From TrEMBL:
Name of protein: DUF551 domain-containing protein
Database matches in Pfam families: DUF551
Residues of the DUF551 domain: 88-146
Length: 149
């Protein structure tokens, strides 16, 4: 059976992650600027340059405006070095877990199950298999705690 409280919690968690990622991209600072200059009376006289300093691009824009050029400035942002991996639930429609990963799944039947990925199935602790096709969301299980000696 489906549990509406857990469905809403999972959806809320997923939406929170989406908004967190979107907000992070809005707060990113440009690493460079692309300036395309076009002469106002001669559209064929166009050139593009790159600048690493915002003050420098603004200075060149002012100088070219004196010479009857218009400028189109585009901020450039650094690409992330690795794909963003959400901290919580991952939608199965976005990405499936890798072979042999230990995961927690939330199924379309409202069940939570933990186990190891074996092909199209998750092998549960009792040795039974659960088909991954029934999973809506999954997350990697954390490493077990280390014994302190």
């Amino acid at each position: 059976m489906s549990d509406p409280a857990h469905d809403n919690q999972s959806l809320d968690s997923l939406l929170a992650n989406v908004f967190r990622i979107a907000l992070a991209s809005l707060e990113a600072e440009p690493v460079a600027w692309k300036a395309t200059f076009t002469q106002i009376d001669n559209e064929h006289n166009t050139f593009t340059t790159m600048y690493s300093d915002k003050a420098e691009v603004e200075r060149w824009v002012r100088l070219h405006e004196i010479g009857d050029f218009r400028a189109e400035i585009t901020p450039l942002y650094a690409a992330p070095s690795a794909p963003v991996i959400p901290d919580g639930w991952i939608s199965c429609s976005d990405r499936m877990p890798a072979q042999d990963d230990w995961i927690l799944i939330y199924s379309k039947h409202g069940e939570y199950m933990a186990g190891q990925v074996q092909g199209e199935y998750v092998e549960l602790s009792d040795g039974t298999l659960s088909w991954l096709g029934n999973a809506l969301f999954w997350m990697p299980l954390p490493e077990p705690p280390q014994e302190v000696k």
